[in-house]
Design a protein that fits this description.
With 220 residues, the chain is an alpha/beta fold. It folds into two domains: 3-124, Rossmann fold; 127-197, Vaccinia Virus protein VP39 (Rossmann fold), CATH 3.40.50. It contains seven helices and seven strands, in the order αααβαβαββαβαββ. The strands form two sheets. It has a four-stranded mixed beta sheet with strand order 4-5-7-6, covered by helices on one side. Strands 1-2-3 form a three-stranded parallel beta sheet, with helices on one face. Helix 2 crosses helix 3 (51-63).
Length: 220
């Protein structure tokens, strides 16, 4: 299928849904499929592998929600590879979309793809992720660590200072601080554990100024 035919498929499919796609919007949606197709060959993000199927079963299927959206702040829970959130964010640049995904490789794909498409209103990683009395610190990192931006924070509200849990943290996160919280009218112990992702060491630059591998890493 040529680019013209793919554009026509999207434009006519959207029209059947009562939507009008501007040329720039159509082009960005096609770039989204480009990103999905390239990453899917490596990381198995979706069982749909043919481009017409991706256009119909991912993009147009996502756009079918458009008439039912309400408000300016929307959340896509279990977004997978970014559907329906990314196509809707492309169609609605004035709305803010939070795309929440439990699988790390898919969440990273969504974050990187949104950046590449210039889709700043779609966020799959957050500056602060918090939880109150949610299992152990290691489990919290396992559940939500991939949702934190590189400079972001995990905030874990605890009772007694969880030194044993801190010792069991994976090396991918570090403790920034443990804050003792004083609540008015209560003598119970309250602590806030502030965690931050540990950035992997940068590869040494070669003479060309690029990383030692000579190419950018893809999401894993």
């Amino acid at each position: 299928m040529t680019d013209i035919n793919e554009s026509q498929l999207l434009v006519e499919g959207a029209a059947a849904l009562g939507l009008t796609l501007e040329p720039q919007t159509t082009a960005t949606l096609l770039r989204l499929v480009d990103e999905l197709e390239a990453a899917n060959a490596q990381f198995n993000l979706t069982a749909i592998r043919d481009r017409p199927g991706m256009l119909r079963k991912h993009v147009l299927d996502s756009l079918s929600l458009q008439p039912f959206l309400r408000g300016a702040r929307l959340a896509d829970v279990g977004t997978g590879a970014g559907f329906p959130g990314l196509p809707l964010a492309i169609l609605n640049p004035d709305r803010h979309f939070s795309l929440i995904e439990a699988t790390g490789k898919k969440a990273r794909f969504v974050t990187q793809t949104a950046e590449r498409l210039g889709c700043g209103n779609a966020v799959a990683q957050f500056d602060t992720v918090m939880a109150r009395a949610l299992s152990s610190l290691a489990d919290f990192v396992g559940y939500a660590g991939h949702l934190v931006a590189p400079q972001g924070r995990l905030l874990a509200m605890k009772g007694k200072r969880p030194d044993a849990e801190i010792s069991a943290l994976p090396k991918s996160f570090r403790v920034v601080a443990v804050h003792r919280l004083q609540l008015p009218g209560l003598d119970d112990e309250r602590h806030l554990v502030e965690l931050s992702p540990v950035r992997p060491p940068e590869a040494p630059a070669n003479r060309s100024g690029r990383g030692a591998s000579g190419h950018n890493r893809e999401p894993s």
